[in-house]
């Protein structure tokens, strides 16, 4: 079974021992309920570093009051088996009380500029990226890794973490890892477990819609508004409640400038039954 | 002359080389214009660690729009001589452009809870402690020290940094160092240079006023309001414009609870001519 520690002191002791041997350390922060997408991040970290720490922590600070904090699936024993099988070296599984001894509302916070945190998912989840940036800063200070791997499925989260690291000079290299998909295109996500059988059959339409917009925009950047509007109508007709569907600069997440020839992405979030699904695709160059 | 580096890469190279030798690293962040008070911090750091890094950086993010950012004294050559003489090992002197490549307003920030940052100096200097916490987080990530030394003269700053470190799990031990004073009691400060000769003669009255309140409160905790009011009247009569003068819990900076037997401090800030002087003293137990 993978070695599992709850206390920051025990974590730091192990990482220090590795450092003393001259070994590099990679880090994959997760909320657990691990699927193939997470394991792909661990494999990326293993390729980049001698030892890999995975954390499992369902972070209350990044959940809104009406969100699924309590319902979020917790499957530690299965997660441990998967991490052992993939070859991760240490699982860090702190308690909420250890991470937020005075409660998350009383904790100092990391604020990434609003231009990055108040758009897209941040617009419908106020405070979400404050919670994400804060817990990742804390975890970076606990683990002190050389690199950390984040999935591109949560592209805005990746950009927020990159920005925090650059702005606050964290000595951690951030690695983005491509989205892993089911054979029908649905992005792997722990929240897919919320889908009923019939919703699961409809779910890949989100990815198809983003692909459709990406293809249309690749052919003609002047057609963004039209392509997005038609995709939203199509998704709503299939039973999605669309939260946003937008074309953005893939690196800065700024609104695209018509004249600039920068890489673009199409990002979307939509409710389907109990699940809120998010996904994004690159616009072909 | 003390080795001086401007680039974070050069700083990290030197610190890594020390780490590889098994040496511990202490850190003293300053805004330069070094006086005996700063050198006492360096001596403390030297007692606690094998190598000591001092930074000199006048941090624009902690100055308000109407404050003395431009006037703040910059005396690098003299500072280097003093640091060499006291035995510091490395001076880190980054440019504003290196610390805030996109400007400080566009930089991610560290927010310590308002209960600690919006009182005392924070009440009259909005955003000040946001700037302090952010630059110290950045410097900690650049230097990666084992310990860092801060003067107790800036007691609120010390408490803000302690809180930030604890809340965000920075692996840095924070050490508070006693206030160094002139023989007449005036706390050493770079801003004392703003005083005219006659103001300098009056300046120790701030410390005397704080001492008077501390003595009165030590004798009778029920007399706080009366002692503070009389001290303020006395200071204003001598030409000070009092910003605040308060009795607070010395560790949490919360308002004192009459029944509790916790350590107290008297903190004050007052304008005298061009200078804004701050000081604090412990209430005798």
UniProtKB/TrEMBL annotation, chains A, B:
<keyword id="KW-0547">Nucleotide-binding</keyword>
<dbReference type="InterPro" id="IPR042176">
    <property type="entry name" value="Pantoate_ligase_C"/>
</dbReference>
<feature type="binding site">
    <location>
        <position position="62"/>
    </location>
    <ligand>
        <name>(R)-pantoate</name>
    </ligand>
</feature>
<keyword id="KW-0963">Cytoplasm</keyword>
<feature type="binding site">
    <location>
        <position position="157"/>
    </location>
    <ligand>
        <name>(R)-pantoate</name>
    </ligand>
</feature>
<comment type="similarity">
    <text>Belongs to the pantothenate synthetase family.</text>
</comment>
<comment type="pathway">
    <text>Cofactor biosynthesis; (R)-pantothenate biosynthesis; (R)-pantothenate from (R)-pantoate and beta-alanine: step 1/1.</text>
</comment>
<dbReference type="InterPro" id="IPR004821">
    <property type="entry name" value="Cyt_trans-like"/>
</dbReference>
<dbReference type="InterPro" id="IPR003721">
    <property type="entry name" value="Pantoate_ligase"/>
</dbReference>
<comment type="function">
    <text>Catalyzes the condensation of pantoate with beta-alanine in an ATP-dependent reaction via a pantoyl-adenylate intermediate.</text>
</comment>
<dbReference type="InterPro" id="IPR014729">
    <property type="entry name" value="Rossmann-like_a/b/a_fold"/>
</dbReference>
<dbReference type="Pfam" id="PF02569">
    <property type="entry name" value="Pantoate_ligase"/>
</dbReference>
<keyword id="KW-0566">Pantothenate biosynthesis</keyword>
<feature type="binding site">
    <location>
        <begin position="188"/>
        <end position="191"/>
    </location>
    <ligand>
        <name>ATP</name>
    </ligand>
</feature>
<feature type="binding site">
    <location>
        <position position="62"/>
    </location>
    <ligand>
        <name>beta-alanine</name>
    </ligand>
</feature>
<comment type="subunit">
    <text>Homodimer.</text>
</comment>
<keyword id="KW-0067">ATP-binding</keyword>
<feature type="binding site">
    <location>
        <begin position="151"/>
        <end position="154"/>
    </location>
    <ligand>
        <name>ATP</name>
    </ligand>
</feature>
<feature type="binding site">
    <location>
        <position position="180"/>
    </location>
    <ligand>
        <name>ATP</name>
    </ligand>
</feature>
<feature type="active site" description="Proton donor">
    <location>
        <position position="38"/>
    </location>
</feature>
<dbReference type="GO" id="GO:0016874">
    <property type="term" value="F:ligase activity"/>
</dbReference>
<keyword id="KW-0436">Ligase</keyword>
<protein>
    <recommendedName>
        <fullName>Pantothenate synthetase</fullName>
        <ecNumber>6.3.2.1</ecNumber>
    </recommendedName>
</protein>
<feature type="binding site">
    <location>
        <begin position="31"/>
        <end position="38"/>
    </location>
    <ligand>
        <name>ATP</name>
    </ligand>
</feature>
């Amino acid at each position: 079974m993978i070695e599992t520690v709850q206390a920051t002191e025990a974590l730091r002791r192990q990482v220090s021992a590795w450092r003393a041997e001259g070994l590099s350390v990679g880090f994959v922060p997760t909320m657990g309920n691990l699927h193939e997408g997470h394991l792909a991040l661990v494999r990326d970290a293993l390729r980049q570093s001698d030892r890999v720490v995975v954390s499992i922590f369902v972070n209350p600070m990044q959940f809104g009051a009406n969100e699924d904090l309590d319902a979020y699936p917790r499957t530690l024993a299965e997660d441990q088996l998967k991490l052992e099988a993939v070859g991760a070296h240490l699982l860090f599984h702190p308690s909420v009380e250890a991470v937020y001894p005075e409660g998350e509302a009383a904790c100092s916070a990391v604020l990434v500029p609003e231009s990055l945190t108040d758009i897209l998912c941040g617009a419908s989840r106020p405070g979400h990226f404050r919670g994400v940036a804060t817990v990742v800063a804390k975890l970076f200070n606990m683990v002190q890794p050389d690199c950390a791997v984040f999935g591109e499925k949560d592209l805005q989260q990746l950009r927020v973490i990159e920005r925090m690291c650059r702005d606050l000079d964290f000595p951690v290299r951030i690695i983005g890892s491509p989205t892993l998909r089911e054979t029908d295109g649905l992005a792997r996500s722990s929240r897919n477990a919320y889908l009923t059988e019939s919703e699961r059959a409809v779910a890949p339409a989100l990815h198809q819609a983003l692909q459709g917009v990406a293809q249309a925009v690749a052919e003609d950047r002047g057609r963004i508004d039209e392509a997005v509007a038609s995709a939203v109508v199509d998704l709503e007709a299939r039973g999605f409640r669309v939260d946003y569907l937008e074309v953005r600069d893939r690196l800065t997440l700024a609104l695209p400038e018509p004249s600039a020839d920068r890489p673009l992405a199409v990002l979307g979030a939509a409710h389907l039954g109990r699940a809120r699904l998010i996904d994004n695709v690159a616009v072909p160059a």
